Amino acid sequence: MSFVLPQYNAPDFSHPSFSEAGTVVFREVEQKGVAPDNYHATSIFPEYYHVRKGIWKLPKESRMDAVVVAGPDDALSVKVFRNLEPGDRVACGRSENGEEGIYVHTRPFVFPAHVPEKFAFRTHLSRETSFSIDYDELYDLLDYERENGFIVWVLGPAVSFDHDAREAFVGLIRAGYVQALLAGNALATHDVEGALFGTALGQEIYEKKTVPLGHYKHLDAINAVRAAGSMESSIKRGLVANGIMRAAIEKGIPAVLAGSIRDDGPLPEVVGDVYRAQDLMREQTRKATAVIALATQLHAIATGNMVPSYKVLDDGTVRPVYFYSVDMSEFAVGKLANRGSLTARSILTNVQDFIVILERGLKKRARSA
Q1: Which is nearest to 138 in space by CA: 291, 8, 254?
Q2: What's the CA gap between 290 and 323, in Å, rounded?
Q3: Cis link prior to 266 (omega < 30° from 0)?
Q4: Cβ(345)–Cβ(134) under 8 Å?
Q5: CA gyration radius for the chain?
Q6: Residue 290, SS3?
């Protein structure tokens, strides 16, 4: 099986429904952070704006739940509400079929026969569902994206709780399958705990034995890194000798650690300002061509809200953005589906097993290539 990038099915703007449509209305922002009445809210789909007679434009970068702002020479950008400034000209109109100069293109890609026409959460997934083909398709996708795209991983702390999973993810980093990492304080904390003490939440990460005073271990790990000043300093001093964060930092992979109200410590690199963290996450997701979220419901939803279903490449080609959600909780993937926040494939399994299987499968393919 080889990966095939789906063809983009561009709208036919010569059709009378488009050629006879009016141009989109742009209204100025009067109050900082407040969109004008009847603003148009963006979706995950490609959206075209009739800026001048016969000229329909697609914003190069988008995200859901934002607004489109017109700039010089009809350039279009997408802004979240908090970044709106007085004088910004915002696209207005609530219809989506071109009547008001706004067209939401909900069937943009022609997928191969073995792939669903539109990426969406499958219905009636359960723990009994088979995922063999999903792994094979993911191997193909990751090999393609490593050479041609930008792969963003969204990690929950469970990835660092298991010895083999932790080592497997380090293997993915070193093999070039990770271009950006989004997580919280817990993932990095327990990864560092594993490096310092061989534990996660006070349990040995291989034998699962609870160690004496184990509840101190993650706090001791945070304290040690804070004393060193940063994780990078901890690595240079030989304090953090292995693990996910070490591998990412050594390879120069951007890692955004978004703070939480329940954080312990936190580690020095954790971004405590939620909107600053959102901006830093967006810096990475705007480059994403594939996103894989592992056992982190809130981070997965947040990332999904930032990622559209498409990306416009430098040569003008429009391609899909793939989003995989991996969790052993049916509720978690159901929650994402109910929000309608992203196009995604879901795999119901233990994420530690998933990482190990994925890394071993990619290695096996590389050896047989």
Answers
A1: 291
A2: 6
A3: yes
A4: yes
A5: 22
A6: strand
Range list of H helices, 20-65: none
pTM: 0.92
Which pLDDT does position 228 carry in this prediction? 97
Angle between helices 185-197 and 217-228 (to 10 degrees): 90
For the cut 80, the answer to whether the pLDDT of residue 340 exceeds it is no
Crossing angle between the packed helical segments 163-174 and 185-197, to the nearest 10 degrees: 110
pLDDT digits (tens, 9 = 90+) for 223-265: 999 999 999 999 999 999 999 999 999 999 999 999 999 999 9
In angstroms, the CA 250 to CA 349 distance is 30
Rounded to 5°, angle at Cα 288 from 308 and 167: 130
Burial class (CB in 10 A: 0-12, 13-18, 19+), 215: exposed
DSSP 159: G
Q: Which has the closest alpha carbon to 24: 82, 86, 104?
A: 104
The helix/strand/coil state of 192 is: helix
Tokens of 149: 């795209």
Directed axis angle between helix 163-174 and helix 351-368, to 10°? Answer: 40
pLDDT tens track for 249-305 = 999 999 999 999 999 999 999 999 999 999 999 999 999 999 999 999 889 989 989
> Which phi and psi angles does 208 have, rounded to 5°?
65, 20
Rounded mean pLDDT of 16-45?
96
